Amino acid sequence: MASVDTAAPERLLTIAEYAELPDNGVPNELVRGRIVPLNRPTPWHGYVCDNAALIICGFVKEHDLGYPVTNDAGIITARNPDTLRGADLAFYSYQRIPKGTLAKKGYVDVAPDLVVEVKSPTDRWKDILAKVAEYLNVGVAIVCVLDPERSTVTLYRPDHPEEKLTADDVLTLPGVMEGFSVLVRKFFE
Hints:
Layout: H1 15-20, E1 28-31, E2 34-37, H2 43-62, E3 66-70, E4 74-78, E5 83-86, E6 89-93, E7 114-118, H3 125-137, E8 142-147, E9 152-156, E10 163-165, E11 170-173, E12 177-183
Parallel strand pairs: 7-8
Antiparallel strand pairs: 1-2, 3-6, 4-5, 6-7, 8-9, 9-10, 11-12
């Protein structure tokens, strides 16, 4: 007699259900309806994230360009099943979310203009590139991956080859933040 697997199918979470979960103190993301735990960032990772926030968010606020968000603020990258990624830093221009309308609760169904991810020593490039692809597929104009181990910034844009900048190169963000310019090494000092 053949056995029949009677296990109930796994129930996948929606973004709305994920948003209602209590914070259990473990960093995580929602990936295709499943909660995926993340490693807790190291102090150096946090330091580089802070530098990026000071540099990029400072420019955005000084020029009143939109909403810079940090601290793994959720970005919707897929629906049905739902995926919600937490970028180290993101920027939404006022063209994407008009001034004064950023929701105080829940997540927005708008892709940011810019996403910045800081590579941790435990991150695998395969996983980072999967996230980059998700961001680009939902309409993010530029994804910057900062690599503290190599003091580099790699830029990803739709329909462009990746561009790697070294510590002595200047990062600009044309089409996203006109006039922005910073020496790459500033993220790692």
